[in-house]
Write a sequence for this structure.
């Protein structure tokens, strides 16, 4: 027969065992929370990169398309070689009539206006265009426009501004 003293020691945990279990539980909880926070941060960074990539693709594609279809640049109304740039292209509409296409930077968004219609935005609301420069690149045989953009995602403080460049030759110059 065992004494009552031995029976009481065999039931339950000691204070040291309980503290060790709590420390292990705290370490595991901290690791899981850290992992979840890291995954969330990576997800938001991925979304921001995707927004920048999509906005850049849409904006540069539109700029290249309009520049390639243009007959020439309206140098009087355009602001070339400085920030914020303004590009006014002389082109033709779908029915063959003369019209203009204008690109400007306003409050961090690139706006486009075709003819006398209202301005429309070409950039995502969370993407800020902090620099827009149009440069005329010409030779005796052709004329091209170089576009320099700096984009920044407002939804992510982790991402640095990203620079993008493209050049397109005007249809009317060759």
């Amino acid at each position: 027969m065992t004494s009552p003293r031995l029976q009481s020691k065999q039931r339950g945990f000691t204070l040291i065992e309980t503290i060790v279990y709590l420390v292990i539980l705290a370490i595991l909880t901290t690791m899981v929370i850290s992992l979840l926070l890291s995954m969330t941060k990576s997800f938001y960074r991925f979304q921001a990169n995707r927004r920048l990539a999509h906005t850049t693709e849409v904006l540069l594609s539109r700029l290249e398309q309009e520049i390639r279809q243009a007959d020439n640049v309206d140098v009087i109304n355009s602001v070339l070689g400085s920030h914020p740039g303004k590009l006014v292209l002389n082109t033709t509409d779908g029915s063959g009539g003369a019209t203009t296409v204008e690109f400007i930077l306003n409050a961090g968004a690139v706006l486009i206006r075709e003819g006398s219609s209202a301005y429309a935005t070409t950039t995502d609301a969370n993407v800020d265009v902090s620099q827009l420069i149009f440069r005329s690149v010409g030779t005796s045989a052709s004329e091209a426009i170089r576009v320099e953009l700096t984009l920044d995602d407002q939804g992510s403080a982790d991402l640095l501004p990203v620079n993008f460049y493209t050049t397109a030759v005007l249809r009317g110059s060759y």
In short: The longest helix spans residues 15-69.
